[in-house]
Amino acid sequence: MNSLGAAGVPVSALSFGAAGIGNLYTEVTDEQAYEAVGAAWTNGIRYFDTAPHYGLGLSERRLGAALRDLPRAQYAVSTKVGRLLEPVDSGGDDRADGFAVPATHRRVWDFSADGVRRSLDASLDRLGLDRVDVVYLHDPDDHAEQAFREGFPALAELRSQGVVRAIGVGMNQTRMLTRFVRETDVDVVLCAGRYTLLDHEALTELLPAAQARGTSVVIGGAFNSGLLADPRPGATYNYAAAPRELLDRALRLQEIAGRHGTSLRAAALAFPAAHPAVVSVLAGARSADEVRDCAERFAEPVPPDFWRELRTEGLLPDTAPLPAGAPVTAPGPVPDPTTAPRPAGGPAPERP
């Protein structure tokens, strides 16, 4: 188990992303969702991440039901705030937002202090839990100032009261996550899709800043929404059809993996886990078979010669840390944490 945040929340190195059991793209039955969570538990996964956004609360309800009979002290749960769910009676479905569920609610952006508290209370009710371990501000891209001035201080207060153990921010971009790391005392950031075999954006500023400040990083989207799991025409990258250039690159990675006797999925999971700032790699799954495959690939050793060839071919930057046993090129200097003390909680300073 790894330790997340100053509170030391124990999390497994491989974690379960519950968007899939919220009917992301396609329908999943209650039984399939239950079996997926059970397979995660059987394979040693002890950290589960969800959000109200996933299936308009369906993911939280299913995850809570599946965890209900498991020993609460032995797993960690995170959920997110920033989207309140308001009932509507308009009919239709939620496929425009990516979920195969009836449109019984609408999402309302709200990063206010009141919105944060209301969102967490509703999540606890759907989960059927008396507490969650981690709460993230979810996708505050277009709501930065409210998230910094109101949302973050509200989470910091909940943490100080012991309502939650750790607080953070989850996004698909690195610029604002880096700002949160540098300007607040977040325990963790969840970075989705920006530190993968195809996208190394987080390596430039976010990961060095997190390492220097002692901020934990959870990496989501290691498969870039599907392309690195199964590169083929029609595969998705960042939830849209993959551009030809990226498809060709993913196919090249797959070909190199095959020649070295490993799988692209194994390499895609191993790569982000090798960075010292990363405490867990979040793998989304909608079935027990997908969970078992992720667990098996995560445990699969990737031959050092595979990484060597990626470096030689210019497919990986020299500064990217590689799994133990791989040929290492020393990364650039990491700032001394003693020169960048973590500030106390409270609002962040204004953006310059």
Summary of the model, kept short:
The chain is of the alpha/beta class. Helix content is 34%, strand content 17%.
Would you list the SSEs in sequence order as H and E? EEEHEHEEEHEHEHEHEEEHHEHH
How many helices? 10
Report the average pLDDT across residues.
92
Task: Supply the helix-strand structural class.
Answer: alpha/beta
Based on CA inertia axes, which overall geometry fits? Answer: globular
- The CA-CA distance between the termini, in Å, is 39 Å
Helical fraction equals 25-40%
Largest sheet: spatial strand order: 3-4-5-8-9-10-11-14
Number of strands: 14
- Enumerate the spans where pLDDT stays under 50 for 5 or more consecutive residues: 328-352
What do you see in this structure?
With 352 residues, the chain is an alpha/beta fold. The protein has ten helices and 14 strands. The strands form four sheets. The chain has an eight-stranded parallel barrel with strand order 3-4-5-8-9-10-11-14, surrounded by six helices. A two-stranded antiparallel ribbon has the order 1-2. The protein has a two-stranded antiparallel sheet with strand order 6-7. Helix 1 runs parallel beside helix 9 and helix 5 (175-183) runs parallel beside helix 6. The longest helix has 17 residues, at 144-160. The chain is globular, with a radius of gyration of 20 Å.
